[in-house]
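Sorry, explain these tokens?

___
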Amino acid sequence: MKNNITTSNNLNNQTSQLKTKKLNLEFKLSDSISNKVLDNKLWIKSWLDIDSTFSINDFEKEFEKRLKLNWFNYEQSELKIKSFDSLLIRSNQGKLIDLYSYNTVFEEEEGSIFVQSGVDTKVFIDNGNNKRTELITTGSIEIVEDAFWMDDDTIILLGYLHEDKLVPFVWFFQIKENIQARYITDRNFGGEKERPNFLLYKYPDIKQK
């Protein structure tokens, strides 16, 4: 009986550890994340254009919490931006990040591409096997501008918070471990100044309608 109780206790302890498992990410951005963000020279330059003192070293962890993903079946042909699939961000194994199929309308007229964007954003990921899930939904104050894969299970979103000031963020997602963490800087960039649509900055051939 004692052995049974010990085994049961061990199982309960393991279950508890699994439920509370966290990556315990560093308070500051790790070197590996910082270096990947710095590789996105266009995003970095877009902030340096606003304030030459912008630095990736100023980012600190705002929160770390569990990530809940609900996968569903879909066909890639259902994507509204299929004809502009260069906007889908691919991993080495064919997984996709989709920043634009929700609340963003692309139209092609006389050889030019025009875009209209809504306020809310949904970011989706596709596992490459016709399975899709919503990664996050954001409102008017959380602006997602760009994304990249660090590896086939790790995603970084780049963007900013916009209330009474512009606050850049680096948003980390580890899909396999179901962990997310967001890093921000407490610096005030731009004040009430409007930040240009980064989509147009990244793809200069696309025009705002």
The mean pLDDT is 81. Residues 2-19 form the longest helix (18 residues). The helical segments are 2-19, 31-39, 41-48, 198-202. Residues 33-208 form one domain.
